[in-house]
Amino acid sequence: MGKSTIINQLLPGLQVRTQEVSSVLDSGKHTTTAAHLYHLDAESALIDSPGLQEFGLHHLGPDELEMAFREFRPFLGKCRFANCRHLKEPGCAIHEAVASGAIATRRLDYYQQLRGEIS
């Protein structure tokens, strides 16, 4: 709750509709009914979406997850082993790209954390 209120603080000219928090339910009142993309500047955007009870990546398999990291894409399929999980396998092209600076270490860390969560 409060996402639309934050949008209004960041982009005051929009006047996105908000409501008070329900004292009975101690939660928001779901004033946002559809997702909207807002551009903050030339390089930044954010999405205001209806409230969610839970967020997860359980619908993604490992192949879909690795494709979600677009900086991984040029290196996928170039690992020594076809079933490389990009964890600790020798000859991993993703690890080699991290070592060369082509991929940020934190991005591989995020990938490995998310892979652990969906496994």
What does this structure look like?
- Helices cover 31% and strands 7% of the residues.
- The chain is elongated and about 55 Å long.
- The protein has helices spanning 3-10, 62-68, 93-100, 105-118, and strands spanning 36-39, 45-48.
- The mean pLDDT is 82.
- The protein starts with a helix and ends with a helix.
- It folds into two domains: 1-55, no CATH class; 62-118, Probable gtpase engc, domain 3 (Ribonucleotide Reductase Protein R1, domain 1, Orthogonal Bundle).
- The protein has 119 residues and is mostly helical.
Question: What is the structure about, briefly put?
Answer:
With 119 residues, the chain is mainly alpha-helical.
Which key phrases capture this entry?
119 residues, mainly alpha, Ribonucleotide Reductase Protein R1, domain 1, 2 domains, two-stranded antiparallel ribbon
Structural class: mainly alpha
Largest sheet: 2 strands, antiparallel
Instruction: Find the CATH topology of the largest domain.
Output: Ribonucleotide Reductase Protein R1, domain 1
Proportion of residues in extended strands: 5-15%
CATH architecture of the largest domain: Orthogonal Bundle
Mean pLDDT: 82
Indicate the percent of residues in helices. 25-40%
Number of domains: 2
Number of strands: 2
First CA to last CA: what distance? 29 Å
Unreliable residue runs: none
Cross-sheet strand order for the largest sheet: 1-2
